[in-house]
Amino acid sequence: MIRIEFCGLPGSGKSALQEPFIAELRRITGRPVLDREAMVDRCLRRRDDGLIKNVLKKFPGVLWKRFLGLEYALPEFHLFVSANPVLMTQIFQCLARPDVSNQARQYVLYAVFRTIVEHYLAASFLKDEILVADEGFVHRIFTVFGYVSSRIREDEILVFADSIPLPDALIHIEASPEICERRLSLRRAYPLLLSELTTEERIDQLRRGCERLRLAVNRVESRGIPVCRLNNNGSMESCIRHIQRFLAETTETWELQGAIAANLM
Asked: In sequence order, what E strands does 160-201 have?
């Protein structure tokens, strides 16, 4: 299983670029490529939940997901949390700050816990598939630290970046806070944790989050993970061309590593 993550500010274009990215990855590799939703569906079907429940999974998901879906993944969550105490400590220390509202804690914890379960399912049940996550552990650095107004020490972000499960590749989409704010204002629903702020406060919050996320991306890259940096302030076409070049180079590396591993066996 290969896992590729996107990260970037809300409104930077993660979701918009994910579809052409997946299409290009399928063309280059010829392998099954899944987004997060498709991955969860496939993994839940593969998970052994007993004879009767396994039979139910042969039917459309609408008939069984309400009582066998992602919400019923406590064992996976428990195993991950037990194995990653440093990461969980960083999350709760950040959320314990006095300027973090209870609403913000609920939002952040839900997003983080969902990512934990998705990661564990993928690691446990995917085989030769490629997972493309529009939001993964690297993006959760923005989720945890980006909505906090108080001062965050650089070492807190670096410890978090050193504690997360690393992807096989990272796509970091940058767009200016001003452009992201304009894009977000056109959506039907503005992000909850920014919705009560003024335009100037939103831009300032996004700017802080951008700086913190950039620091984490640099740290992840220093750990040997290939990073594709995209500037999405303008043309989507230029971003797609950049993605194509990055994928061509990265998939060649994966193929070489696979050949070396096969020869060593």
From this structure: 169-174
Torsion of CA 214, 218, 224, 227, to 10 degrees: 40
Q: Are 132 and 21 in contact (CB under 8 A)?
A: yes
* Sequential DSSP letters for 204-234: HHHHHHHHHHHHHHHHHHHTT--EEEEE-SS
As a whole number of angstroms, the distance between CA 202 and CA 108 comes to: 17
Q: Is 215:157 a contact under the CB 8 Å cutoff?
A: yes
- Cβ-proximal residues to 144 (8 Å cutoff; 6+ apart), any chain: 90, 91, 94, 95, 108, 112, 160
Task: Return the closest-CA partner of residue 228 out of 31, 8, 9.
Answer: 8
Is the CB of residue 70 less than 8 Å from the CB of residue 43?
no
Minimal CA–CA distance to 131: which of 256, 242, 5?
5
Name 244's Cβ contacts closer than 8 Å, sequence gap at least 6: 24
Distance of CA 258 to the CA centre of its chain: 25
d(CA 225, CA 221): 5
Question: Average pLDDT, stretch 70-93?
Answer: 85
Assess whether pLDDT exceeds 90 at residue 138.
Answer: yes
In the predicted model, what is the mean pLDDT of the chain? 86
Helix (H, G, I), strand (E, B) or coil at 128: coil
Amino acid at 55: V
DSSP string, 28-81: HH-S-EE-HHHHHHHHHHHS---HHHHHHTTS-GGGTHHHHSGGG-HHHHHHHH
Query: Is the predicted pLDDT of residue 192 greater than 80, yes or no?
Result: no
